[in-house]
């Protein structure tokens, strides 16, 4: 919500606090509880949905939540499910995702999801109950050090010790979560702070003047001019985009630059969709399981423009051999990313939307000729595009994703867990818009996909939501079927069931002499379609290619709640291309025999 709206609401709230008469003549203002201040502060920000689970130490806040007429609460079955749902909600809706949990195990169960949001720069705000201030530090019942636990995986965190600090803390949390590089915030609220009294503060409030925190809205225009000069003379340029394009809402500005010079664009996993997969400038995903053309192009480039990406190890492979012949320009809003992994020749710290707008202006009227470069890239497409073979007797996981892509509309939101299915989704689903793919990129959290689908569906009830997952990932948070059934959320879960923790099994097969230690999980795993029906959802089983389309259509058409399509896919199918650990990105293998 824009600050002008916040200030208008704050002014209205100030009038309402003057003895209920709104006359502002110095009457004694009504006291409210800290718990009421939390809910009032969240309402002030315009939040309409919250995820969480009630517990003893956060009961006062839930009591006030029950009185709210504007906030919907989605009760999940596990706190990890709640925070993943809030994470996806934030990415889809473009505003902070809010999660509530009680003290002790409630708070500690949030930490995986908070770390996930931190790695993927997602604005999640967690509010946790805590034991009374007099009991803190005494190993009291259900006490954990929330600030200590969350400090390495949050943008900022709070332990609120005075009820009077609650309003400013809520406001600051929203500002910090969204400004600059987005990230998660934790707010820990002792029970006596929730029940204590305060006076709601009058008037406007400023949110930029937090000690030690400053976001610079500008950027170095001279560096952008230098970038434009170097890009103009480049013979083999490549643009590499990451999730920062989606965070900044900079897809249009990106494409203005790309089309001026007809630049090839590669994407990280998190950047998929920021350029339409059908666009002729898109050359594929880069990195460990990236496309051959994308990895080859970066390896042979003479100028690499990286925008909104951390350039992490899954992208670079062997850092010393990443874009070894290229000048590197790096645009990112976080100065900490400059030179952290790849030292840029032209660092530009700033908002991607603003920087790309300025770059587009700098390129106006300039010309370049890279037709020969495109000829090389097209040759790599001919040489390194894998074919989906097979006679149909064994269901290929790639064909499941390809069929799902054909049957779903372009506005469909796709979530994934982590593993082989995540890479097949990235390779064979054609993403057309930013934040269409909701996945765990940095932390690699198995179990993320299904609760993320719940959060995405709550955020966008009019858009189809599909979760592509594996039997290992799905079972990590399968209990959230209860949530989807209770809330009547029509999410479709497509399970690529191969009876193993597939990505680890693939590494064991290729690099550990096929010693499959504790990765085969099919024994004891029930029918996941029947489990879905037991929860009250729709279950569909597909065992061969012939019934794939009809099975997917049956599940996608079910709108009364969640549906699960259990696809029994080829058990030993592996993800290719693949860059072995420690290798250069252009040293990818296309099949088992290459390994």
**Which strands sit side by side, in order, in the main sheet?**
3-2-4-5-7-6
Shape: globular
Major β-sheet profile: 6 strands, parallel
What is the helix tally? 24
Describe, in plain words, how this protein is organized in 3D.
With 595 residues, this protein is α/β, with parallel strands linked by helices. The chain has three domains: 33-199, Thiamin diphosphate (ThDP)-binding fold, Pyr/PP domains (Rossmann fold); 221-384, 3-Layer(aba) Sandwich (Rossmann fold); 397-575, Rossmann fold (3-Layer(aba) Sandwich). Helices cover 37% and strands 15% of the residues. The chain has 24 helices and 20 strands. The strands form four sheets. The chain has a six-stranded parallel β-sheet, sandwiched between helices. A six-stranded parallel β-sheet has the order 11-10-9-12-13-14, with helices on both faces. It has a six-stranded parallel β-sheet with strand order 16-15-17-18-20-19, sandwiched between helices. Strand 19, helix 24 and strand 20 (563-568) form a beta-alpha-beta unit. Helix 2 packs across helix 3, helix 4 packs across helix 19 (449-459) and helix 17 (397-407) crosses helix 18 (420-428). The protein is globular, with a radius of gyration of 25 Å. Mean pLDDT is 92; it is low at 1-27.
Secondary structure: elements and pairs:
Layout (H helix, E strand, L loop, with lengths): L2 H14 L14 E3 H11 L4 E4 L6 H7 L6 E4 L3 H15 L3 E5 L3 H4 L2 H9 L4 E7 L15 H5 L5 E4 L6 H13 L6 E6 H5 L1 E3 L21 H13 L3 E5 L2 H5 L2 H11 L3 E3 L14 E4 L6 H9 L2 E5 L5 H4 L10 E6 L13 E4 L2 H12 L7 H14 L12 H11 L5 E4 L3 H9 L8 E2 L10 H11 L5 E6 H6 L4 H6 L5 E6 L4 H10 L16 H8 L2 E5 L5 H9 L6 E6 L27
Parallel strand pairs: 2-3, 2-4, 4-5, 5-7, 6-7, 9-10, 9-12, 10-11, 12-13, 13-14, 15-16, 15-17, 17-18, 18-20, 19-20
Antiparallel strand pairs: 1-8
């Amino acid at each position: 919500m824009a600050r002008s709206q916040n200030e208008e609401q704050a002014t209205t709230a100030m009038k309402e606090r003057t003895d209920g008469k709104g006359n502002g003549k110095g009457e004694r203002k009504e006291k409210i509880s800290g718990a009421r201040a939390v809910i009032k502060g969240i309402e002030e920000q315009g939040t309409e949905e919250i995820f969480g689970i009630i517990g003893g130490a956060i009961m006062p806040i839930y009591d006030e939540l029950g009185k709210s007429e504007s906030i919907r609460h989605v009760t999940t079955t596990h706190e990890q499910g709640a925070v993943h749902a809030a994470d996806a909600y934030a990415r889809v809706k473009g505003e902070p995702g809010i999660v509530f949990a009680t003290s002790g195990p409630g708070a500690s169960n949030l930490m995986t999801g908070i770390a996930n949001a931190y790695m993927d720069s997602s604005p999640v705000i967690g509010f946790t109950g805590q034991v009374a201030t007099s009991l803190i530090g005494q190993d009291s019942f259900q006490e954990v050090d929330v600030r200590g636990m969350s400090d390495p995986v949050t943008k900022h965190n709070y332990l609120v010790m005075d009820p009077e600090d609650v309003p400013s803390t809520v406001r600051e949390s929203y500002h910090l979560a969204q400004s600059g590089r987005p990230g998660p915030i934790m707010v820990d609220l002792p029970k006596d702070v929730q029940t204590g009294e305060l006076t709601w503060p009058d008037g406007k409030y400023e949110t930029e003047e937090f000690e030690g925190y400053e976001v610079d809205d500008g950027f170095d225009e001279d560096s952008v001019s230098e970038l434009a000069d170097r890009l103009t003379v480049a013979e083999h340029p490549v643009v590499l985009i990451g999730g920062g394009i989606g965070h900044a809402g900079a897809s249009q500005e990106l494409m203005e630059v790309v089309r001026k010079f007809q630049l090839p664009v590669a994407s990280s996993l998190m950047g998929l969709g920021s350029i339409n997969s059908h666009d002729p400038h898109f050359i594929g995903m880069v990195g460990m399981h990236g496309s051959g053309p994308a990895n080859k192009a970066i390896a042979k480039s003479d100028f690499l423009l990286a925008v909104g990406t951390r350039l992490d190890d899954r992208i670079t492979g062997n850092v010393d051999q990443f874009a070894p012949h290229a000048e590197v320009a790096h645009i990112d809003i976080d100065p900490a990313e400059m030179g952290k992994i790849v030292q840029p020749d032209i660092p530009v710290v700033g908002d991607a939307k603003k920087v790309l707008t300025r770059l587009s202006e700098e390129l106006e009227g300039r010309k370049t000729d890279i037709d020969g470069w495109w000829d090389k890239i097209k040759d790599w497409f001919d040489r390194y595009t894998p074919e989906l073979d097979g006679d149909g007797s064994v269901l290929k996981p790639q064909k499941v994703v390809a069929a799902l892509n054909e049957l779903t509309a372009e506005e469909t939101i796709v979530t994934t867990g982590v593993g082989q299915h995540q890479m097949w989704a990235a390779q064979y689903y054609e993403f057309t818009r930013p934040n269409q793919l909701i996945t765990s990129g940095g932390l690699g959290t198995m179990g993320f996909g299904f609760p993320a689908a719940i959060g995405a569906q709550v955020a966008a009830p009019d858009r189809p939501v599909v979760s592509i997952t594996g039997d290992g990932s799905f079972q990590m948070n399968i209990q959230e079927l209860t949530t989807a059934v209770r809330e009547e959320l029509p999410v479709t879960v497509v399970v690529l069931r191969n009876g193993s923790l597939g990505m680890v099994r693939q590494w064991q097969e290729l690099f550990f002499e096929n010693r499959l230690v504790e990765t085969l999980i099919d024994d004891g795993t029930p029918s996941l379609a029947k489990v879905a029906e037991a929860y009250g959802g729709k279950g569909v089983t597909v065992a061969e290619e012939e019934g794939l389309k009809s099975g997917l259509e049956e599940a996608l058409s079910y709108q009364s709640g969640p549906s699960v399509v259990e696809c029994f896919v080829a058990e030993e199918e592996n993800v290719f291309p693949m860059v072995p650990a420690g290798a250069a990105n252009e040293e990818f293998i296309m099949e088992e025999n290459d390994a």
